[in-house]
């Protein structure tokens, strides 16, 4: 009887630990958010954004350079498939994505090039990391990347790891951060250690007429 009585606290502690482990696993399955906020819900909320305009600062960290290269300009997204990146400094350049056509223009040299994305699969996969995130298009995003979500609705981060071997030769992972429905950070990490970090701040001015 004495031996049985002493074993009860041990069994109680074991039961408590098992319960705690079960609760932890449930929270992990829900993205560690008791209110049910998860990847699907983030994508649903992003899909509601029809227009977003901001200013960006992009720093490219290259192993051959002591200091990062810095670029700045404006971004405009119009749902579901128009994206404009206009670099103002250190020299004018523009990238305009309209559906599946990417137009690149060098403002100083008046050079213009147009790409049809289906002819450039690796470029297309990279473009979808940005466009599909902004559009909240999880099926397309998951077609090209393993997608992980961390953080909370107030401050979240997506980590995208390319599925295609050719893409992995160029990009190890893409990290996209945001607050609510505002996407504020894009980071591209290359296999050799080079990386590019773009931060985006809100621009409250109305978008220019197209």
Describe this structure in words.
- By secondary structure, the protein is of the alpha+beta class.
- It has one domain (39-202): outer membrane lipoprotein receptor (LolB), chain A (Clam), CATH 2.50.20.
- 30% of the residues lie in helices and 40% in strands.
- Helix 3 runs antiparallel to helix 4.
How many strands? 11
CATH top level assignment: Mainly Beta
Could you state the CATH homologous superfamily?
A: Lipoprotein localisation LolA/LolB/LppX
> SSE order in H/E notation?
HHEEEEEEHHEEHEEE
Name the CATH architecture: Clam
Number of helices: 5
Shape: globular
Structural class by secondary-structure content? alpha+beta
Strand order of the largest sheet: 6-5-4-3-2-1-11-10-9-8-7
Summarize model confidence as the mean pLDDT.
84
Number of domains: 1
Low-pLDDT segments: 19-32, 205-210
Estimate the helix proportion, in percent.
Answer: 25-40%
CATH-derived topology:
outer membrane lipoprotein receptor (LolB), chain A
Strand content: 35-45%
| Largest sheet properties | 11 strands, antiparallel
The radius of gyration is 23 Å
End-to-end gap: 85 Å
Q: Short description, anyone?
A:
By secondary structure, this protein is α+β, with helices and mostly antiparallel strands. Helices cover 30% and strands 40% of the residues.
């Amino acid at each position: 009887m004495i031996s049985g009585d002493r074993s009860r606290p041990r069994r109680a502690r074991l039961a408590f630990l098992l319960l705690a482990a079960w609760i932890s696993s449930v929270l992990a399955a829900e993205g560690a958010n008791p209110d049910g906020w998860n990847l699907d819900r983030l994508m649903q909320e992003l899909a509601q954004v029809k227009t977003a305009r901001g200013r960006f600062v992009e720093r490219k960290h290259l192993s051959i350079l002591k200091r990062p290269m810095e670029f700045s300009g404006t971004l405009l997204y119009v749902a579901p498939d128009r994206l404009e990146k206009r670099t103002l400094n250190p020299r004018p350049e523009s990238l305009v994505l309209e559906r599946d056509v990417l137009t690149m223009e060098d403002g100083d040299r008046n050079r213009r090039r147009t790409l049809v994305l289906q002819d450039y699969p690796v470029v297309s996969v990279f473009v979808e990391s940005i466009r599909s995130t902004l559009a909240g298009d999880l099926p397309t995003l998951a077609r090209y990347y393993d997608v992980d979500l961390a953080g909370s609705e107030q401050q979240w981060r997506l980590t995208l790891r390319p599925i295609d071997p050719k893409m992995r030769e160029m990009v190890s992972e893409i990290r996209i951060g945001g607050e609510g429905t505002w996407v504020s950070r894009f980071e591209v990490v290359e296999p050799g250690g080079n990386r590019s970090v773009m931060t985006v701040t809100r621009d409250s001015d109305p978008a220019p007429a197209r």
